[in-house]
Amino acid sequence: DPDYYEFEVNIFFDDAFELCDENVEDMVVNRFVKQFVEVIDEAASNVHQCNIKLKPPKKYPTPYGGRLEWILPGGNKLVVHLKDKIKIRHRKRWSQVIERVEFYLQLA
User: Cellular component GO terms, alphabetically (predicted)?
Assistant: First the structure.
């Protein structure tokens, strides 16, 4: 089918974590990440014009913070990268973050 193609979507959140109100040592995702997670099913449903309920994302810790991964209808992947300013200097460019991660992966 010439109209079929595979793609991967990558979304990046700077400063994606904040201190937890209940325990000052715990970090939780901020309201923007929470809102994104809350509306992903609605967005998918609007695109496909039917009710869609995606499986919860797989969660991965990373050297820069964290990563969420969904499999979208059709099998394409949606990856959300969550930068933790405690792990990666505040205002550091994402390109520098990704270069560092690639370097670590080459060492593994």
Answer: cell periphery; membrane
